[in-house]
Description:
- The protein is mainly beta.
- It has two domains: 3-130, Immunoglobulin-like; 142-300.
- It has two helices and 22 strands.
- It has helices at residues 72-77, 250-254, and strands spanning 3-4, 7-9, 13-19, 25-26, 30-36, 44-45, 47-48, 53-56, 67-68, 81-89, 97-103, 128-130, 142-151, 156-157, 162-166, 178-181, 187-193, 220-228, 258-262, 273-277, 281-283, 296-300.
- Strands 13, 14, 15, 16, 17, 18, 19, 20, 21 and 22 form a ten-stranded mixed sheet that branches.
- A hairpin with a 7-residue loop joins strand 10 (81-89) and strand 11 (97-103).
- It starts with a strand and ends with a strand.
Amino acid sequence: MTADRGLSRVAPLGVRFVDDRTGAAVAEGLVVTCWPAGEPSRRRLARANGSSVFSLHDVPGLGDVERGTGDDAYFRAAPRRPFVLDVEDRDGRFLPFRVMAELPARGLLPFTCGPAASPPGPDLPGGIPLFTAPTRPAAPGSAVLRADLWDPIADAPAAWAVVQARVASAAGRAATPRWALADDLGRLALHVPCPDDDDLDGGSFASPSGPAPVPLAARTWTVELTAAYRPPPSDPRRARHPRGAPVPDLCAALMQPPATLWTDRARTTPVQRASLTYGRDTVLRSIGGARPPSVLFVTPGSPP
């Protein structure tokens, strides 16, 4: 805040973005813009401070609101307006997305979307997750589950579908799920770290023929898979970044209803598990048929 005619200058927006793989705050390379809902021509660029928090001043329509004390009484009385936040990564590590916010907002804009507001990977306090793009290289010590998701009913890529992987915990602890969001072409990369021995379902990485541990390159484990998907609207006016790339509403994407992944193109057997190998990519495809090639079918609705 800064002094202004005896009052404080209140920033109506403060938001931090975090890496879905590591939980680390990310600012470099991100382009964050904000504008009043329905008025994209009044777009403003948010800037990050040394703590990787993006803030905005001189927000269109909130000039009077920015002049205040910033205390409890101020935030109780301040009128709130809907704004749109666009987030894009110039470096291509993360998928672009859009979120809605009521401004002014006190403190950091919280992450409140998804099933019970569950984070997609590590604990992500005080931040909105950035979802890894399918082109991002794998991190050491992980495996990557990849798929080109296809909606056979709409005969189109399953844009913005969500897939969750969970390692069953032999120690009885609740396993932390990992999430991945497909891009507008249905391409998905779900990065899963190698679990500890105690978290493996049914044993450890010890060799079955003796006490020697299994080499890293030979370590495999099983994850349970669930999906969520609703066909995106066909309206050509759907959300796009200024350069024309389609973007999802993040909350709408994370609140999609359950969906079914299929092992076969005839859609007789759902995909419920996958085996991962340390340091490698596992590609899921539906078998049978030839059009389109090398895709994994997904349809709305829970598995039978």
